[in-house]
Q: What sequence folds into this?
C-alpha cells in the first residue's frame, strides 16, 4: 500500500496483476471481507475518503488489491518449507500453473544469501520454447480437490496432462489389490462402484467399506486440521484412531485422505515428542514419517523440494540416539523389525540422508548447492559417517583381539 503512494514502476506492476474481483466465488467472500477489514484497521482508515491517499478511489479498489494479493502472492518459507510470510513478485506471478510442474518457487537461503530470496528452480531440463510451469496448489491432492482449490482462488479449471489423464490409476486415488499382487485399483465412486486391479484384474468386493473409509478419513482430516493448533492432543488422538482404519481399508500410502492424514499425524507426533525422549515415541515418529515419505515419493517427481524435505526429516529421526536400543535380534527377526536398531539404523539414516541431499540439490538449486536445506543435511551426513567409522573400527578391533594368539608362559 505504501508502494502505491510512491507511484513508481513497482506500483504499476502491482496494478497490472490479475484480479478476480468481478468473478469471486461465493466461498471466497468471507476471506476477502476479513482481509479487507484487517487492512483497513491496520492502516487506521476510518472513512472511504481516506483511501485516496493510497490511490484507492472506492471500496471496490480495495477489494481489487486484496484479490491481486490473494491471487499472486507466494508463501515465504523456512529452509524446511514451513510458511512464515507472504511475498509478491509480478514477474514470477506471470508463470502459469500445472499440476505436473517443471519448476518450483522456493526460498533456499545460503551462506551468500542468508535472507529469504525468491527463486524459480527447474525440476528437470526444460527444452527451448517449452513453457515454464509451477504449481499454485498442493498437487498431492486428488483431481476434484485440486480443481476446487484452483476454481475458488484462481478462477480457472486446469487442463494440464495430470488433470486430463484418465487412462491409468492415479496414486492419489488408489487402493491396493485385494489379492495383494502388487497392483492397484482406482478408488470406487458412488457412480462407478466397479474397481479392478490394473495388474491381475481382481475386483474389490466391499466397495462400501472403502467409500466409508474415505468419507470418515476426510471428516477426521478436516477436524484434526482445525484442532492442530487449538488442541493438538485432541488432533493427535483423531489421527491416531483413524489411520489404522484407512490403512485396513486398503488405501495406498499416496492416496487421499491417507497421505494428508499421515503428514498431519507425523507433524503432531514430532511436535509432541516427550522430554526425555522414549524409544516408543521415537519409533512411532519414524514409522509415521516413513509412511508420509513413501506416499509423497509416489505422487511428486524426483527432486521436488517437499519430497526431499520429507526424506531429510526421516534421515534426521533415524539418526537420533536411541534411548533404549533393542537387544540384538536374530537375522530373521531383524528382517521384520522397523525401524531397525543399532548400526543398521545408522546405516539406513545415512542412506536416507544421502538420498535427501541428492533430491534437495535439485529442488533448491544445484547452482547454490541446495541452500540451507542441503547444508543442514550435509552436516548430518558427516556426523553419521564419523559415527559409523567409529563403530566399524570397534568391530575391527574386537575381531583382531579374537584372532590374536595369547602369549603362554614357559614351564620350568
A:
Amino acid at each position: 500500500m505504501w508502494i502505491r503512494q510512491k507511484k513508481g514502476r513497482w506500483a504499476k506492476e502491482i496494478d497490472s496483476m490479475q484480479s478476480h474481483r468481478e468473478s469471486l466465488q461465493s466461498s471466497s467472500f468471507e476471506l476477502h471481507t476479513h482481509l479487507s477489514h484487517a487492512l483497513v484497521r491496520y492502516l487506521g482508515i476510518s472513512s472511504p475518503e481516506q483511501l485516496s491517499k493510497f490511490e484507492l478511489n472506492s471500496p471496490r479498489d480495495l477489494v481489487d488489491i486484496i484479490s491481486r494479493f490473494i491471487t499472486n502472492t507466494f508463501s515465504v518459507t523456512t529452509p524446511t518449507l514451513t510458511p512464515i510470510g507472504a511475498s509478491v513478485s509480478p514477474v514470477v506471478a506471470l508463470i502459469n500453473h500445472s499440476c505436473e510442474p517443471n519448476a518450483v518457487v522456493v526460498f533456499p537461503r545460503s551462506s551468500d544469501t542468508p535472507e529469504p530470496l525468491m527463486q524459480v528452480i527447474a525440476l528437470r531440463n526444460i527444452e527451448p520454447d517449452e513453457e515454464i510451469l509451477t504449481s499454485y496448489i498442493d498437487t498431492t491432492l486428488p483431481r476434484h480437490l485440486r480443481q476446487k482449490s484452483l476454481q475458488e482462488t484462481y478462477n480457472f479449471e486446469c487442463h494440464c496432462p495430470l488433470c486430463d489423464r484418465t487412462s491409468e490409476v492415479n496414486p492419489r486415488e488408489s487402493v491396493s489389490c485385494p489379492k495383494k499382487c502388487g497392483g492397484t485399483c482406482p478408488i470406487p465412486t458412488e457412480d462407478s462402484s466397479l474397481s479392478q486391479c490394473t495388474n491381475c484384474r481382481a475386483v474389490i468386493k466391499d466397495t462400501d467399506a472403502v467409500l466409508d473409509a474415505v468419507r470418515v478419513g476426510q471428516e477426521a482430516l478436516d477436524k484434526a486440521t482445525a484442532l492442530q493448533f487449538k488442541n493438538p492432543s485432541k488432533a493427535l488422538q483423531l489421527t491416531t484412531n483413524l489411520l489404522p482404519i484407512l490403512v485396513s481399508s486398503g488405501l495406498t500410502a499416496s492416496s487421499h485422505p491417507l497421505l494428508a492424514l499421515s503428514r498431519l499425524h507425523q507433524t503432531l507426533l514430532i511436535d509432541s515428542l516427550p522430554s526425555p525422549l522414549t524409544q516408543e515415541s521415537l519409533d512411532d515418529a519414524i514409522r509415521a514419517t516413513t509412511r508420509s515419505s513413501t506416499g509423497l515419493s509416489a505422487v511428486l517427481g524426483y527432486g521436488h523440494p517437499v519430497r526431499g524435505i520429507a526424506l531429510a526429516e526421516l534421515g534426521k529421526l533415524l539418526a537420533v540416539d536411541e534411548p533404549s536400543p533393542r537387544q540384538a535380534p536374530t537375522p530373521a527377526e531383524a528382517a521384520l523389525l522397523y525401524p531397525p536398531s543399532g548400526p543398521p539404523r545408522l546405516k539406513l539414516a545415512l542412506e536416507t540422508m544421502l538420498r535427501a541431499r541428492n533430491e534437495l540439490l535439485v529442488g533448491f538449486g544445484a547452482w547454490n548447492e541446495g541452500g540451507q536445506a542441503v547444508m543442514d543435511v550435509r552436516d548430518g551426513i558427516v556426523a553419521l559417517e564419523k559415527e559409523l567409522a567409529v563403530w566399524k573400527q570397534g568391530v575391527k578391533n574386537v575381531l583382531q583381539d579374537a584372532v590374536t594368539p595369547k602369549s603362554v608362559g614357559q614351564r620350568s
Observations:
- The chain has a mean pLDDT of 88.
